[in-house]
Amino acid sequence: MIIYDLSCRLGHRFEGWFANAGDFERQLVEGLILCPQCNSHDIKRIPSAVALAGQKRPTGREAARVASAVLPQSGTAIIAAYRQFVSALIEHSEDVDNSFAMEARKIHYNEAPQRAIRGNATSEEFAELADEGVAVVRLPIIGEEELN
After folding, report:
1. Rounded distance, CA 46 to CA 7, Å?
2. DSSP character for 137?
3. pTM, full prediction
4. At what angle do helices 123-131 and 100-108 cross, to 10 degrees?
5. Which residue, among 102, 107, 101, has the nearest Cα to 126 in the 3D structure?
6. 3: which strand partners?
7. CA dihedral 23, 43, 32, 20 (to 10 degrees)
8. HEC-encoded secondary structure of the chain
9. Which listed residue, of 5, 138, 146, 148, carries a Cα 20 to 30 Å from 77's Cα?
10. What is the band of 53 on the pLDDT scale with cuts at 50, 70, 90?
11. Average pLDDT for residues 57-81, to the nearest whole number?
12. What pLDDT score was predicted for residue 113?
């Protein structure tokens, strides 16, 4: 899995998750990548915060310019990026529905194959999993109607 920082022709910034660099190039050529804010297919890769971290640390005005280049410009952009992240997780995980707690335990204790899963768990089940040291996370799903 490779994660690229991307931008559309209008300057909306977002992440794209791809199997490899070739997968990114193929999807770009086929017009499968689009901006989550404006649906533009005119997309380009931009320098990532990780790439910038390996360089000399900027100061003063340069630091402010770099920060504005890697951070979303608005709350809407943050929500759009979050929704894209959750969509990628959903696409690359198995839905185990109400068996989530049981399957998470099986994976944790090597009684089932390692894999990404998603599903439903009560607050009590979630707390019990955390107490057992099972690495789980709750992610709210933000719908279109919740953007306003």
Report:
1. 7
2. -
3. 0.48
4. 10
5. 101
6. 17
7. 10
8. CEEEEEEECCCCEEEEEECCHHHHHHHHHCCCCCCCCCCCCCEEECCCHHHHHCCCCCCHHHHHHHHHHHCCCCHHHHHHHHHHHHHHHHHCCEECHHHHHHHHHHHHCCCCCCCCEECCCCHHHHHHHHHCCCCCCCCCCCCHHHHC
9. 138
10. very low
11. 58
12. 92
Output the six-digit token pair for 3.
Answer: 């994660």
Q: What phi and psi values does residue 123 have, to the nearest 5 degrees? A: -60, -40
CB 31 within 8 A of CB 41: yes
Number of other residues whose CB lies within 10 A of the CB of residue 102: 14
With contact defined as beta carbons under 8 Å apart, do 103 and 112 qualify? Answer: yes
Long-range contacts of 118-122 (CB under 8 A, 24+ apart): 118/89, 118/90, 118/93, 118/94, 119/95
Question: What is the predicted pLDDT for the residue at 137?
Answer: 86
The owner of tokens 């959750």 is 86
How sure is the predictor about 54, in pLDDT bands with cuts at 50, 70 and 90?
A: very low
